[in-house]
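Sanity check

After download, print the first record. It should look like this:
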Amino acid sequence: MITSLGIWFMKVLAHLPLRPVRALGWLLGWGLYIVAVSRRRVVHANLALCFPDKPGAWRTKVARASFVCFAQAWLDRSWLWHGNTEVTKSRLNLIGAVDELQGHTPTVIFLPHFYGMDAAWSAVSAAVPRRFTTIFTPQRNKRVDDWIYEGRRRLGEIRLFDRFDGVKTIVSALRAGEPLFLLPDMNFGAEESIFVPFYGVPAATVPSLSRFAKLGRAKVVPVTVRMTAQGYDVEVHAAWPDFPSDDVVADTARMNLNLQGYIDTMPEQYYWVHKRFKTRPAGEPPVY
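Expected structure tokens:
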């Protein structure tokens, strides 16, 4: 019942102008910063580890803004998934090296976890006439699962693989010319992860970007997304040269280093609410 009401609310919200949607997100974000104490501690812990040289006032400002961006991006799913199609497209500004995504060259799209990531693949799939793929983690709530599944397939053509479908199916599609959106910059636990620096802190990181690129004989094209007053700027960056290499550890460290450069341009829009350093090297004390 609560889930159905929530989806109904998002459908209603979809028809409002962007300004009141963002204003509501601002209020919700501030409310979450105040009441979500445990998650607020996670954000502050992440920022303290990644930006130890920044003043405390700067980190507090970024933390508060991060909660606002989180809430605004969540409510933006209303118009991304239920709004008028032309209005939705008008709010998505695809810029940069878009030609990197044309043609049929096997391509892995490195899509970091900025809060507007759902706007990113909507913008790309709506503008580029190719079938894209990504890996979808099923939700516990079937109604929510269906809502997210359909929302992410709304614009263009996107095929969502279950994370349990296996590597062979995904690689086969990649080699056939279906670009793969990959979001490997989260903590997925110790299994199959390696420790590489993220802002100088050892972070358990899955080396899937390097491995899928090598298995799919694909280039890697980063795509980042920035929330703006008009909607989102979705930037396609040039493909990384000499990637992947024969050193998966070096590749994964390079991924994190490049990611830091993207984050530094808009730190408040990165997914700091995630426990990025939950998995620690043997003998290291917990962060959270």
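If your output differs, re-run the checksum step. Summary of this record's structure: DSSP finds ten helices and nine strands in the chain.
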